[in-house]
Amino acid sequence: MMNTSTFHWSCKHTWKRSAKNTAWCVLGCAIGDFGTILFFQLTKIPFPILGIMILAIINGLITSIILETIILMIQKFNLVNALKTAFGMSLISMISMEIMMNLTDYVLTGGAILTWWVVLIMLLVGFLTPWPYNYWRLKKFGIACH
């Protein structure tokens, strides 16, 4: 654990490591999030936009935890420890990422519509939103998901 008086935002190593962790989180969240939106977009099932976005956020959190569990198991964690670690990841980071990705979609398209350019912007916003928090958490507490 780092002393608060020595905390700084200029460690390149921590920025790189937190960027890697954040990218894995974005990938995991995007699978469930985009999959849900795409499902409703293709099937044209009448469902409220807010409902689709809430389902997308929930599914994004679930797929992120699943991906993290798989990554940890590849790193030789047993299933129980991998699941505990995955569930112990920062929900603040994941929820902020999911909310901002869906808010971006809503602002740019009216919500629950995926196009290639919206997906790129959503991924960028989804990455940038939690990255400073993940840096801070890693630098201050030494806590990372991988």
Task: Report on this structure.
The protein has 146 residues and is mostly helical. It has one domain. It is built from 6 helices and no strands. 33% of the residues are buried. The mean pLDDT is 92.
Please give the domain count: 1
Order of helices and strands: HHHHHH
Low-confidence parts = none
Oligomer: single chain
Rg on CA atoms, Å: 16 Å
Percentage of β-strand residues: under 5%
**Helical element count?**
6
Describe the SSE topology:
Layout: H1 12-43, H2 49-74, H3 79-87, H4 91-109, H5 116-128, H6 131-141
Helix pairs in contact: 1-2, 1-4, 1-5, 1-6, 2-3, 2-4, 4-5
Question: In short, what is this structure?
Answer:
The protein is mainly alpha-helical and 146 residues long. The chain is 75% helix and 0% strand. It has one domain (12-141).
List its traits.
single chain; 146 residues; mainly alpha; 0% strand
